[in-house]
Amino acid sequence: MNNKEMETLTRSQAESKLRQSPAWYQRIFAWLMAHGTAKYEAEMSDRKQALFADLHGNILEIGPGAGPNLRHYPSDIHWTGVEPNPFMDSYLKQEADRLELTIDIYRGTAECLNVEDNSMDAVVSTLVLCSVDNLERTLQEILRVLKPGGRFYFLEHVAAPKGTGLRRVQHWIRPVWKILGDGCHPDRETWIALEKAGFERVEYQHFRAPIPAIVSPQIIGVAVKRSN
User: Fold this and answer.
1) Is it true that domain 3-224 has CATH number 3.40.50.150?
2) Hey, where are the domains in the chain?
3) Rounded to two decimals, what is the model's pTM?
């Protein structure tokens, strides 16, 4: 299969994913993301503020949801969001208007970003990599759209340490959790995929967030694309 055929297949898969969830589910999930995460966002505010402090230029956020990160961004960036759920748009626009930010929203998935190669100074993902269908493909897309030396900023919930009771519970509950959480995998070893993706440098730390135990193990950090 040549590159053009592979790209066509990937776009077809992405379009199929956009049609997976029924409209009523997408609408409810968007409402929950807009109204049910205030406590978590308050707890993560300082971490996010520090993580995003040096953002500049063209910023792409994958799966921005209802826009909880917008308040933490510097005002001089050009922000683009790729969001698969159309019912998130009104919440995103409302938050952007409140903050007097100009934003661009595109429909799409993380596995097939409708963004030019080497065009973004930074890519942002928070609580998104847990729910993508193909994590490895998503990371390659992030590398593709980043400029040489560009940075990927992430904050994600991940698998608990192997051999722990929580890890066993995460594995056991995964089939149900994926349905309730719009494809979320509670036991994904995202940090390993990041280390293998081909970034020049990946820096992160594990921590426990004060939220339900299933998704409390999290990582926060930055991955840097090679300069040449």
Assistant:
1) yes
2) 3-224
3) 0.89
